[in-house]
Amino acid sequence: MPFFKITLMRSAIGLPMKTTGVLKALGLRKRMATVFHPVSPQVAGQIMAVKELVAVSEVENAMSKAEFKATRKPDPGYYIETPAHGASEQV
Questions:
Q1: Kind and range of the H or E element at 24?
Q2: Distance (Å, rounded) from C-alpha 3 to C-alpha 59?
Q3: Fewest CB atoms less than 10 Å from the CB: which of 4, 17, 56, 78?
Q4: β-strand partners of 59
Q5: What is the spatial distance between Cα 16 and Cα 14, in angstroms, rounded to a whole number?
Q6: Which strands form 54-59's sheet, in the order they lie side by side?
Q7: CA 7 to each of CA 19, 26, 58, 83, 84: distance values in angstroms, whole numbers, following the listed order
Q8: How many Å apart are CA 24 and CA 6, to the nearest integer?
């Protein structure tokens, strides 16, 4: 089942209450927040009401909050390797 991946790109400060209400209904409170909603005409209508503020893409599976956070985690830049067996005895 496809989902809309909706990310709030621009702030709603200074916009009419109708626009901020649509963002609240979608579950978007802060900039760069991302939510997943199933593809439906109702959600598509809400997206069209705030199309200038959001970035939308269609994905096959919705991610949980933990899965989405794991995709954004950067590479540490280093790896810790365990010493070979007997290496600590030679020192």
A1: helix 17-26
A2: 5
A3: 78
A4: 3
A5: 7
A6: 34-38, 3-8, 54-59
A7: 15, 10, 12, 44, 46
A8: 13
Q: Which amino acid is at 46?
A: Q
Element (H, E) at 87: helix 87-90
Nearest C-alpha neighbor of 46 from the set 68, 33, 28, 32: 28
Instruction: Kindly state the helix (H) or strand (E) to which residue 65 belongs, with its residue range.
Output: helix 65-72
pLDDT for the residue 8: 97
One-letter amino acid at 1 equals: M
Average pLDDT of the chain, as a whole number = 90
Angstrom distance (rounded) from CA 63 to CA 65: 7
Helix (H, G, I), strand (E, B) or coil at 90: helix
DSSP 8-state class, residue 61? S
**Mean pLDDT across 61-66:** 90
CB-CB contact of 41 with 65 (8 Å):
no
